[in-house]
């Protein structure tokens, strides 16, 4: 079966996400056909969606202007998977505590943007993630953390007591960047183990 | 619920973290700003980051004299104003200016030929820094030397402050052409190319195998309109720096928004047509072909 994977390609590390979903699919003997989402009409053709890292202000502006936001909400409402990383997590949330970001409201969390400080505070570290046997190589870049989670949200990993990876139904979101490392286990968790299994 | 494994394993300023930051800027527009108010406008226009400096390149040209790093107080003000990353420019080879920018909280340092060169012989050793660097290049050899020194992002030099895109086009084409040629070469021919072009050979082989630069590659230097920005994207750039082109335009808000939208729709002429309408006059500029060689900035720091 060919998996149609839509990468929201407004801005950010789009090609890294495209490569990561192709790698993850190949590990499951599937082909991922990647579609870049920059205009309305593409999301409804996709089996899974990826919301990349980048600048949340820039990304959310475009999604709202072009009407792609409503399509993503419908995708999630239909129970189809979405992986959102870093800025993607901020955009997917219900509250970014900043009126410069228009949220998609598909993940019931409150987010603290740039919670770790500036770029010099960005880091990589091994992170224990629920459901993974060994720590995941997590890369945090001007990363957000999650302040509050709704009742339906499962916390998969935390850093210093604050959630950095969560799942709510078909949505998996991380404040770090699994697409920047060759490790496909977060993609497995988001796409291949739960929903499509 | 799990906890972090071991905080001792935390690493800052690695290549992965620095190059990763640059990757997050892809598909975006980074705008030069000289005041807090301009930074606010840039963020509202959809800029992914702002470059704080004392004067835009067009004004640096007019003013003459020595161009230096901006007052750190300005960087602080701008950091306080916007939520997007804030970058600062240091003189080529001026390690201390870069240290000050890093200490002030700059998310990326631009070791820039737009400022007066501080060291005629050496660039900053960028590997020593936690903050990532961007450097200009006119060709692949220059680009790979800068990456070898630790640059996490490359941009074309273009000819800053002119509003004439032709040098940015030339530099991007130089880089792309050389990568295509390398990709078609045998191993020993690539080694020879590396020697002739004074480029680190490991990076030459890596670039040839990937078919692209090992780091993000932006356009800069003379980009003044939405069409200029889209052209550079069509030539394979990952994103755009706009210097004098936004706040030197008749209507900076309209121009800033239009350039951001043009980058987003760079391959869609119908969309570009609408984006380019009614945005006021672009900066006046100065054509490169009429500029005396000694006034050009691009020859600094090769």
From TrEMBL, chain A:
Active-site feature positions: 86 (nucleophile), 177 (charge relay system), 179 (charge relay system)
Summary of the function given for this chain in its UniProt record: Catalyzes the hydrolysis of glutamine to glutamate and ammonia as part of the biosynthesis of pyridoxal 5'-phosphate. The resulting ammonia molecule is channeled to the active site of PdxS.
Biological process, per Gene Ontology: L-glutamine catabolic process; pyridoxal phosphate biosynthetic process
Residues at which L-glutamine binds: 54-56, 113, 141-142
Quaternary structure and interacting proteins, as annotated: In the presence of PdxS, forms a dodecamer of heterodimers. Only shows activity in the heterodimer.
Source species: Halomarina rubra
CDD domains: GATase1_PB (cd01749)
Pathway annotation: Cofactor biosynthesis; pyridoxal 5'-phosphate biosynthesis
Pfam families xrefs: SNO (PF01174)
Protein name, per record: Pyridoxal 5'-phosphate synthase subunit PdxT
UniProt keywords, alphabetically: Glutamine amidotransferase, Hydrolase, Lyase, Pyridoxal phosphate
Top-rank taxon: Archaea
Similarity comment: family membership: Belongs to the glutaminase PdxT/SNO family.
Gene: pdxT
InterPro entries reported for this sequence: Class_I_gatase-like, PdxT/SNO, PdxT/SNO_CS
Enzyme Commission number: 4.3.3.6, 3.5.1.2
From TrEMBL, chain B:
Ranges of compositional bias, category Basic and acidic residues: 293-302
Transmembrane segments: none
Gene Ontology annotations of biological process type: pyridoxal phosphate biosynthetic process
UniProt cross-references to Pfam families, sorted A to Z: SOR_SNZ (PF01680)
UniProt-listed Enzyme Commission number(s): 4.3.3.6
UniProt pathway annotation: Cofactor biosynthesis; pyridoxal 5'-phosphate biosynthesis
First-tier enzyme category under EC: lyase
Region (Disordered): 283-302
Active site: 89
Entries under PROSITE patterns matching the protein: PDXS_SNZ_1, PDXS_SNZ_2
Keywords: Lyase, Pyridoxal phosphate, Schiff base
Residues binding D-ribose 5-phosphate, per UniProt: 32, 161, 222, 243-244
InterPro entries tied to this protein: Aldolase_TIM, PdxS/SNZ, PdxS/SNZ_N, RibuloseP-bd_barrel
Assembly, per entry: In the presence of PdxT, forms a dodecamer of heterodimers.
Family indicated by similarity: Belongs to the PdxS/SNZ family.
Role noted for this protein: Catalyzes the formation of pyridoxal 5'-phosphate from ribose 5-phosphate (RBP), glyceraldehyde 3-phosphate (G3P) and ammonia. The ammonia is provided by the PdxT subunit. Can also use ribulose 5-phosphate and dihydroxyacetone phosphate as substrates, resulting from enzyme-catalyzed isomerization of RBP and G3P, respectively.
PANTHER family noted in UniProt: PYRIDOXAL 5'-PHOSPHATE SYNTHASE SUBUNIT SNZ1-RELATED
Name the record gives this protein: Pyridoxal 5'-phosphate synthase subunit PdxS
């Amino acid at each position: 079966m060919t998996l149609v994977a839509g990468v929201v390609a407004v801005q950010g590390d789009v090609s890294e996400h495209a490569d990561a979903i192709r790698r993850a699919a190949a590990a499951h003997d599937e082909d991922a056909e990647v579609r870049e989402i920059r205009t309305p009409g593409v999301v409804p053709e996709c089996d899974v969606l990826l919301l990349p890292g980048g600048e949340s202000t820039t990304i959310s502006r475009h999604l709202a202007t072009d009407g792609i936001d409503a399509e993503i909400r419908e995708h999630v409402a239909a129970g189809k998977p979405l992986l959102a990383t870093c800025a993607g997590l901020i955009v997917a949330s219900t509250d970014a505590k900043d009126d410069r970001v228009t949220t998609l409201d598909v993940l019931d969390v409150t987010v603290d943007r740039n919670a770790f400080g500036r770029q010099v505070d960005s880091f990589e570290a091994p992170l224990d993630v629920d459901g993974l046997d060994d720590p995941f190589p997590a890369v945090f870049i001007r990363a957000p953390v999650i302040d509050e989670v709704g009742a339906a949200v499962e916390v998969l990993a935390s850093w210093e007591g604050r959630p950095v990876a969560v799942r709510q139904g078909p949505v998996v979101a991380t404040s770090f960047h699994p697409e920047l490392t060759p490790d496909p286990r977060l993609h497995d968790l988001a796409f291949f183990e739960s929903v499509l299994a | 619920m799990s906890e972090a494994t071991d905080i001792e394993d935390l690493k800052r300023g690695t290549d992965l973290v620095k190059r990763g930051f640059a990757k997050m800027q892809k598909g975006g527009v980074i705008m030069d700003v000289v005041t807090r108010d301009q930074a606010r406008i840039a963020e509202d226009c959809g800029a992914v980051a702002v470059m704080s400096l004392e004067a835009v390149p067009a004004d640096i040209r007019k003013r003459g004299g020595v161009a230096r790093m901006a007052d750190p107080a300005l960087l602080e003000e701008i950091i306080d104003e916007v939520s997007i990353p804030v970058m600062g420019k240091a003189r080529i080879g001026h390690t201390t200016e870069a240290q000050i920018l890093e200490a002030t909280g700059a998310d990326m340092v631009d070791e820039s030929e737009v400022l007066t060169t501080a060291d005629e012989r050496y660039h900053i050793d960028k590997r020593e820094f936690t903050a990532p660097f961007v450097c200009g290049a006119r060709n692949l050899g220059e680009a790979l030397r800068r990456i070898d020194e630790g640059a996490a992002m490359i941009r074309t030099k273009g000819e800053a402050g002119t509003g004439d895109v032709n040098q940015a086009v030339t530099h991007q084409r130089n880089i792309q052409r050389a990568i295509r040629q390398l990709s078609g070469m045998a191993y020993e021919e690539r080694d020879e190319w590396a020697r002739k072009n004074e480029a680190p050979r490991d990076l030459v082989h890596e670039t040839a195998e990937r078919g692209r630069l090992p780091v993000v590659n932006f356009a800069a230097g003379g980009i003044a309109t939405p069409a200029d920005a889209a052209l550079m994207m069509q030539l394979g750039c990952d994103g755009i720096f706009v210097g004098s082109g936004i706040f030197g335009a008749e209507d900076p808000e309209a121009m800033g928004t239009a350039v951001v939208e043009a980058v987003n729709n760079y391959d869609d002429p119908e969309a570009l047509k609408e984006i380019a309408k009614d945005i006021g006059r672009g900066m006046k500029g100065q054509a490169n072909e009429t500029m005396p060689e000694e006034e050009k900035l691009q020859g600094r720091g090769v």
